[in-house]
Write a structure and sequence with these properties.
The complex is a heterodimer. By secondary structure, chain A is an alpha+beta fold. Chain A is built from 10 helices and 5 strands, in the order H-H-H-E-E-H-H-E-H-H-E-E-H-H-H. In chain A, the strands form 2 sheets. Chain A has a 3-stranded antiparallel beta sheet with strand order 3-5-4. A two-stranded antiparallel sheet of chain A has the order 1-2. The longest helix of chain B is centred in the middle third of the chain and has 27 residues. The chains are: A alpha+beta, B mainly alpha. At the A-B interface, strand 2, helix 4, helix 5, helix 9 and helix 10 of A face helix 1, helix 3 and helix 5 of B.
């Protein structure tokens, strides 16, 4: 890529990120910056990220949903909020539980979600589809051909995941809340065992 | 126990049961069914003016609890105890509870991440994006919404006798393609101009969906809520049967 002497490739990269509405995939940047290798693009991105890391900058370059995007730093949120107004309402607990289920068990049907949550999920699933956080993946080849749901790209953006492999593992989640099992008293010694057990349970869940 | 609970606080019967297990400091692997059933039913007793559908969901679990309780009253046969240990009637419930708890906790983690992301602002979608070449996308739900709008502006057909074979989706597909040959792109609404009966509207819409599926036409919406435009895919052949979309 040739740029005028007074504008480095980082400036071009910054501009590309600025005008992009969705996270910009590495391959797309490579395509636009004709002549830059993947490694060079990665290095440019790292350099740009470093520049934004300075305390006198209000933006940050993050990798999310399979691409890179410019976002405001969390510290400036109060002022941006004053300018732009607040964001759409946060998700309800019912929506979050349903979304978590879909994220970990996709593709999954409504009936399967209801079996685990113990409640009807028609309204919640509709809301999640409308907010573009889940999408229809197809139909399950069984009686009634029920619709299979999975998460969307917006889902990754909404929670700041690079891809689905970034979802916290069930092991990490189980570590959040200590279970009320009596063996907990001897935590240090049984930690290894406990984590093995968590793996077993995760496998069973699949 | 002298605490009061409101069912609206819970995401469902399993959530309520988990709560009761937690406040009573019960080991989830060894639930005293009689005690927990009593507590659970006590909570349900206070829900007279609750939505019937929700109440039903809570009652299903109540029935399950009572069923388990009755099973546990039956003495275990010696012969069963000899071989492998007899099935604990609570096992299935425990597994359901643990599975539900995992996702409840995952939801809490998601909530945390959501709060973090809510502090980040990104460029808003450009509402004046020009329609250009490139991937043409519209969601099925947006298409359905647009179609519902068309259905609403068309009055219900008067009682006219129609033999089923006068309406043919295949024929509507050809009509739509012919229209797009003359003019492409064309707005979604314009595709339905001159289509007067609801049955024909539906057939046209089904035809359009089939064309989309086969990749013969494409639909695009520049942003949510804006007009949907239908394009004819270049060089498409009408008879391209089984051509993947």
């Amino acid at each position: 890529m040739d740029t005028p002497a007074d504008l480095g490739p980082i400036g071009v990269l910054e501009a590309l990120l600025f005008v992009s509405e969705a996270p910009l995939p590495l391959e797309r940047i490579e395509e636009v910056l004709d002549g830059c290798s993947r490694a060079e693009v990665s290095r440019l991105l790292a350099d740009l990220q470093e520049k934004y890391r300075q305390p006198d900058r209000g933006l940050v370059v993050t990798e999310v949903a399979g691409g890179y995007r410019l976002a405001t730093k969390p510290e400036v949120a109060p002022w941006v909020q004053r300018l732009r107004g607040s964001k759409p309402a946060r998700l309800s607990r019912a929506a979050l539980e349903t979304l978590a289920l879909i994220a970990y068990k996709q593709p999954i049907t409504k009936i399967e979600i209801e079996a685990i949550r113990g409640v009807m999920v028609d309204g919640v699933v509709k809301t999640l589809v409308e907010r573009d956080l889940i999408r229809i993946l197809g139909r399950k080849p069984e009686v009634g051909r029920p619709i299979l749901y999975g998460t969307s790209r917006s889902f990754l953006e909404y929670f700041g995941f690079k891809d689905l492999s970034e979802l916290p593992t069930m092991k990490e989640i189980e570590a959040l809340t200590p279970s009320p099992v009596p063996e907990d008293t001897n935590r240090g010694a049984t930690e290894k065992e406990a984590s093995d057990e968590a793996v077993d349970q995760t496998e069973k869940a699949e | 126990m002298s605490y009061r609970v409101r069912l609206e606080m819970f995401e469902g019967p399993l959530d309520l049961l988990l709560y009761l297990i937690q406040v009573n400091e019960i080991d989830v692997y060894d639930i005293p069914i009689a005690k927990i059933t009593q507590e659970y039913l006590g909570c349900l007793a206070g829900m007279e003016d609750l939505d019937l559908e929700i109440a039903g969901e809570f009652l299903v679990l109540a029935a399950t609890l009572i069923h388990i309780k009755s099973k546990m009253l039956i003495p275990v046969q010696e012969s069963v105890a000899e071989g492998e240990s007899a099935d604990d009637p609570r096992q299935e419930l425990v597994e359901r509870l643990l599975e539900y708890r995992r996702f409840k906790e995952a939801a809490m983690k998601f909530e945390e991440l959501e709060a973090g992301q809510a502090l980040l602002y990104v460029r808003p979608a450009d509402t004046a994006a020009p329609i250009a070449e490139g991937p043409l996308e519209v969601s099925l739900s947006a298409l359905l919404r647009a179609f519902t709008a068309i259905m609403q502006r068309t009055p219900e057909a008067r009682a006219v006798e129609i033999t089923p074979d006068t309406i043919n989706v295949g024929e509507r597909m050809v009509t739509v393609l012919d229209r797009l040959t003359l003019q492409s792109p064309v707005s979604f609404l314009a595709l339905f101009d001159g289509v007067t009966t609801r049955a024909l509207l539906i057939a046209t819409f089904l035809g359009l969906l089939e064309l989309l599926r086969r990749g013969l036409v494409r639909a695009r919406q520049s942003d949510p809520g804006s007009e949907i435009t239908i394009y004819r895919t270049v060089e498409a052949v009408v008879g391209a049967d089984g051509h993947p979309g």
